[in-house]
Amino acid sequence: MNTGYFVSAYATSPSSQAWEPELESQYFLELKKSPKILGIEHPFSLNEDKYPLPWLLENIPQHWSFTITTLPYFMNITDPFVGLASTQEEGRAQAVALMQQVCDYVAKLNQAFNRPLVKAVHLHSFPNNDQNNKRSHKEALITSLKEIKSMGWGQTQLNLEHCDAYVSTHAAEKGFLPLEDEIEALKAVHGYGIILNWARSAIEGHSSSTPLQHIEMAIKSGLLQGFFFSGCTDNKNNEYGYWKDTHMPPKNFIHGEYLQDDSLLGKDEITQSLRALSGCNNPLYMGVKVHDPSHFRVMAKRVGLNLETIHAVNSITL
Q: Which of 8, 116, 210, 220 is most deeply packed, by most CB within 10 A?
């Protein structure tokens, strides 16, 4: 397969703990050398000390675009009832107000770069549910989606990224709404799309078949707009964790330096996913999301994890 990819660069950032602009510039310089990278998934943050606008203007090449994820920001909110699908009106309204700040940030970026830099914004069906609490509901999500849609996003796509939903058989990583509910909500409002992530679907079902089921559902709905490759493992002794959403790279079938033999995202799983995605009528954007769990900030590994994951996906011929 020959295509370009968005890279969740922040997940392997060498300055993830404390902002180090020179180190981050070196990291981006290496990523920019790859012709396979179309842009980055960029985290929204109210902390302007990290990825400040002057730094972005100096380090983002003209041919790159952004997808902006709101997930890291919402994950850091301590109130468990804040979210676009919240059953508590105060928490729902607070989440919508935060999305207005995201909208303002998108406009700021596009204006500063003097082009439609931001291709899409990824939002999520917070808050999480568990066996004791039902904190989210699709009707609340519908209300939020209607309000967000009216904010004025220009050419930027609004896409809901599905994360693992709450299920009764095992503890959830995210525990958001089921894909069925998200699809119903998006169809009720119109103008939104769906983004899938291989690992997050696999984690939901504790099965490598769940991503294929979700791809089929999303394509059938007509809403699928993008797909990110990220792995996970069922090995309890692996540093990435047992069925954890830690952005594990694929299985090392390309004989690289940084991929993981314990990963459930192998050659067959990538092939099956790409084959299923080929049935989508929408123009999809693809991405990779990997992480280095070690405390050693080795630049070659931070860059190599992304490039080898792209190479693994891109090596598949259908």
A: 8
313, burial (CB in 10 Å: exposed 0-12, middle 13-18, buried 19+): buried
Comparing CA positions, the residue from 292, 281, 246, 279 lying closest to residue 265 is: 246
Which amino acid is present at 99? M
Say what the pTM is.
0.96
CATH level 3 topology of 5-314: TIM Barrel (3.20.20)
Alpha-helical (H) ranges within the chain are 21-31, 53-59, 71-75, 89-113, 138-149, 179-189, 198-205, 210-221, 267-277, 299-314
Question: Exposed, middle or buried, 237 (CB in 10 Å: 0-12/13-18/19+)?
Answer: exposed
Residues 52, 53, 54: CA angle, nearest 5 degrees = 95
Residue ranges in the chain whose pLDDT is less than 70: 1-2
* 3-state SS, residue 35: coil
Name the phi and psi angles at 82, rounded to 5. Answer: -85, 125
Domain spans in the chain, listed from the N-terminal domain onward: 5-314
